[in-house]
Amino acid sequence: MDVDIWAWVGDTQQQLSEAGNVGLAMALGDLPAQAYEGRYPQLDVMAPAIAQQAETLELPWLEFYARYWHLIGRVGDRAQGAVAIGDAEQLLAFAQREDVRDCPAAPAAVEALALAWANADGPGYAPLRLEKLGPAIEAADPSDPVYTGLVTQYVSALTDAGRAGEAVSYAESAVQRLGAAGRQASWELGAESARALLAAGRAEDALSALQAAADFQADDPVAKPYRDGVRRALILATLGRVAEAVDALPDLDVVGEHPRAWVEWTSAVSLLAGSSQITNTWQLGRVIRQWIDYFGMMGGYRARVELALVAGDLAIARQGVWQARLLADLADSGTGELRDSTGLAERVAALRAAADATPEPPAPGPVAERVAYFDAADGHNADPERWAGWLSPLSGQDLETTRRHTTTLGYLGYPATGADIFWKLLVDEGDVASADADDIAYLTTLLVDARQDERLEQMAALLPHDQQHLTLARLHMARERWQQALEAAEHAVAAGAGLDARRIVGAAAQQLDDNAKGAQALLEILDELTEEDTWRMIVMATSAEDWDTVRKGAAKIGMPIKSTSGPIEEEMGLIRVILPAPDGGQRQVLSIRTGPATARLALPQPRGMDYNAGDLVVFDPQLLEPVPDDPQEAQNFVPPFAAVRILRPGGYTSYFFDGAAPAEDDWADFTETMAERGWPMWVYSDENYTVTHPTSGEALPGVFGWVAVPPGVSAVEVDALLDDATERWSHPLAWLDLAREVDVEVERHERIVKEYGL
Questions:
Q1: Which spans of this chain does the record mark as coiled coil (predicted)?
Q2: How many angstroms separate the CA atoms of 601 and 615, rounded?
């Protein structure tokens, strides 16, 4: 983004803050970091909110800014394809509006659309990408910040079009044009040049290009280390430099969070899988299968086919013949979604031929005894991929075999295949109405995971009322249709369904904020509840302020409560309550636990927050961090819990203070004064915070924070107390917002802020 955009960001942050939109102001400058650092839950909430606010304020450049970063978060690291194309096209149309097109960053909308097309089908969309990018590049100057991104995408499109030689030449000329404009190429441009060289069969030159780009600044600095490692590993593996490639390859736990690296990482692994350093396991196959499904949902059609073919080759190397055949079928069907499927039919045929030529691994025993062998196998070390093959001969014929086979298939990422087999046995050839409840649950899970909702509804219609409604409730829960889930689960309970139906009643009722209903459904079978169920009941009963039910739940889990009636207000130690921050992140607030699932916030919060000191909060009693093993650390451990809701606001009001830190004695007196009045106070500055001496200019230790006062304490009283408590300090403290509110000595506080550089 251009510097003018950042100036707009700063100005608009101030406007939003002054208008009371503190949360939006805080989030505004953080959008690029959210996109690059993978903080997508925040980005998906804050970017649309900022765009909407920008539209209201009639700031189209700002609206473009918010929409652009949201889209980059989707088509960049998350590699969304067809699902993002419509939004990318709308952003481009917005960027071409008269009041937006002069924005220096507006051409970046073309880059975003090119990325979405590339994610969907790089080669298939290559002509369109070149057609859109060409004029945008011609209209841009190499000194423009958007120029590098545009030419990087042009090089990528040329490579995907099968014109790798042209891509290399174009990248070289782009670097020269940037140099003439006094700018350096980005790491992304250098890495894309390396990809073009590799596609051109010049692997050594590709490695040199990537090494030359190592010191270039990256547009996405967070992604540079793992993306460089993946590309370097692929080039080195192509060169046969196995040990170096393995060293360069990022671990699975690193790339697992970055979809845009998955295809290249898997390709590198497939070249290294024959080495002793890379283990080709069923776990690897399961992960890649999950990645294939991800791209299916995101419209990454080319990536889905590529991963299926590479995963099939890896399966063949493990003798996973059944899996290779399914992957060949998946790749074959996936080619129909591509705009250009050149060469893929031959690769699918080669995979099928390899599967036909590969022997199955020897089974552990006769077909009739394999269920017994399966049950006796070490569940921790057993290879489910092999068992899926060994159990298949009797699957669909024998119920015990079918149960184990189909659930194993579902676990490995093939729920549709498992559902077909179980359906044939249970529905087509059996009497599903009289089937065991566990078998119905197994088939339901397979159908849900395979997203075969209509088929599941068809099965439900054949079941007795209790199982019918329970099955539908499970489907609605999986699809987050809370009202339908609640209604179906209540019908199931009324028809005689057991604990599972009541759990769904509780979970759906909690989502619908009908906590009393959810708690009652579980209370009615209190003796049957597990500890987890009991805690859920306690949380819902607490939210409904049903203290009798809370006490019954506490008694069941052995938690002593001193009082016998009314609200539970006891001191049970310090905890950390995790609450949402205005920028979509999280805040940890030190709190005093007052009950099994309640805590009172102890720290004052800035103005504009939805909570403050004194608020009574319901929290989920499931620990978010394990208790440390070290006894000393465990003794000092303050357990963190996730907030569920604000039960009762304390009505406290916060006031900001800022200035030079006083002497220790003065500060001790100040904090004691606040404590005597029961006014929570917290310093948010650290030892690095300094202010400027107004005459000498030297740096002085600074302090800023918030003090919260309970209802009934007027702003005038706060101002007077702060004035009395700090009048003897060698340097004055400022509370400008409070002074403006009470209209007392406003000019003095403004002068302090200015003179001390607060």
A1: 472-529
A2: 6
